[in-house]
Amino acid sequence: MIDGDWLSYSLSDFLMFGPEVFLRLFVRINQDFWPWQGIALVLLLVVAGLLVRGDTLAKRGVLLLLAAAWVGSGAGFLMEYYGPINTPAIWFGWAFILQAALLTVAALVWPWDKTTAGLARRWQAGIGWLVMAALLPLLVVVQSGNWHALALFGITPDVTVAASVPCLLLLPRRVRWLFLLLPLLWSLFSAATLWTLGTRLMFVLPAATLVLTIACFRFSPRPGKSQD
Amino acid sequence: MAIKLSRRQFLAALAATGLSLRMPALMAASGEKAIARPIPSSGEPLPVIGMGTWRTFNVGGDQQLVQERTGVLKRFFELGGTLVDSSPMYGSADEVMGEALDTLNAHDRVFAANKVWTRDGNATREQDRASRRKWGIDRFDLQQVHNLLAWESHLETLKQMKADGDIRYLGISTSHGRRHRDLATIMEQEPLDFVQLTYNVLDREAEQRLLPLAKERGIAVIVNRPFQGGGLFRRYQSEPLPGWAEEAGCSTWAEFFLKFIVSHPAVTCAIPATTRVEHMEENMGALYGRLPDDEQRRQMADYVAGL
């Protein structure tokens, strides 16, 4: 491509599929995964429960479950379903697996301090997270008009990333940026894709995740109390 | 000699004409000859409506959609189409085309056109081999350098492949009106059988230089994006066709847009892409009936510009 030629390209020139094919990915993965969607629902409840519990062990558990969710949506949705129609999805699939490895390392070897937030704040966090992670999958359903297109946490990437970003606030700010890089890149990629596809309702999710991710680079929750 | 018709006869004739104009299947079944243009370098006739696969055949492993696209391809062949164009750039389109050809057992019915799309100028044969394997064919009828990418080295290899009988025709493609000046230079200097470019009732830059040059140099022209990627329908579908459209051989907007293109004397074939059988049927309407003359082409362009 010669200099200046890039200027004549638009995002749609790089998209090799239409919204029908993309929305069908959600239906297909749910059909193939059936009836194991229950695991994703249990995952939601356990993460919410651990956020409420809030002690060191619970924090480690949250990160481990997030790791499982990133592997699920990366190796499953991105590499097996999305990748064949959009090559960058395969690269993101590998990046999701790398992110899961990072989360696992953080869960297992990070020297967590023993501070914990107050009970009320932990309940707010747990219930708030549960409500968000349970409602976000409906965006694809509304967009496609098909209940079978439910985009579950741990199975599809946008919901997994959106629901993971607030949990990353558990990590100290000095290392958190490392875990926010991929959510930032994915949200940019996904928002650009969904905007170009014209699936404007679904676009809201990565766009909001993008804003949230940028905020998380800067924001730190108030320090909690020691468990001792 | 004047023929006197009763009102009933006149209405019946009018209805039959209108019906046949709208139903390419009837025209194909009734033995009406599809409009074809000779490939200048060989004289081999090519139906003026082919099929593109950009965005439409990239459905991955979705068996439901693979079946639907197979239905579209089946209708294309039934209605007299032969040329199908794809590219390694189009995701899984090559694999899906291979599955569809297998299902229809249509490997010998297709005029198979593909592209080489890699910056590695030494990978021409390797990519051709990979695409052939996906299509399940022994050789491509036409192999093109996609978007002029590393065109010097690819074209040299394609010339050798043609000499060896590994491909029948060679060409070079561009789209969206990009790099027309470079394409013109290549057309002037290289022994091309085909060029592929964007041309439609709104994007008419090719009329200035490329189409006359193709005619002069005896190069077949494949036209991509005949509907501006669907944009022409979004813009004009709610508008009425002009009253004189039937005289120009057009009973739908699809025929209007396609016949405008293929009636240009330098154009060999247009390659609309679709995911729906009914749209394929509309598109293939442009393969039959009469084509607009020069005056009608001017009228068509003016009408669209005035909407």
What's the helix and strand layout?
The complex is a heterodimer of chains A (228) and B (307).
Chain A: H1 19-33, H2 37-53, H3 56-82, H4 88-109, E1 115-116, H5 119-135, H6 138-144, H7 157-167, H8 173-197, H9 200-218, E2 225-226
Antiparallel strand pairs in A: 1-2
Helix pairs in contact in A: 1-3, 2-3, 2-5, 3-4, 3-7, 6-9, 7-8, 7-9, 8-9
Chain B: H1 7-22, H2 24-29, E1 36-38, E2 45-47, E3 51-52, H3 63-78, E4 83-85, H4 93-104, E5 111-116, H5 124-135, E6 140-145, H6 151-163, E7 167-173, H7 180-189, E8 194-198, H8 210-217, E9 220-224, H9 231-236, H10 253-262, E10 269-270, H11 277-284, H12 294-306
Parallel strand pairs in B: 3-4, 4-5, 5-6, 6-7, 7-8, 8-9, 9-10
Antiparallel strand pairs in B: 1-2
Helix pairs in contact in B: 3-4, 3-11, 4-5, 7-8
* Percent of residues in helices of chain B: 40-55%
Summarize model confidence as the mean pLDDT of chain A: 90
| Distinct helical segment count of chain A | 9
Give a quick account of the main beta sheet of chain B: strands, pairing sense, barrel closure: 8 strands, parallel
Question: Which shape of chain B, going by the Cα principal axes?
Answer: globular
- Biggest sheet strand line-up of chain B: 3-4-5-6-7-8-9-10
How many β-strand stretches of chain B? Answer: 10
Q: Mean pLDDT score of chain B, rounded?
A: 91
The most extensive interface, with participating residues per chain, is: A-B, 21 and 24 residues
Classify the beta-strand content of chain A into a percent band: under 5%
- Roughly how much helix do the residues of chain A carry, as a percent range? over 70%
Number of discrete domains of chain B:
1
Find the CATH topology of chain B: TIM Barrel
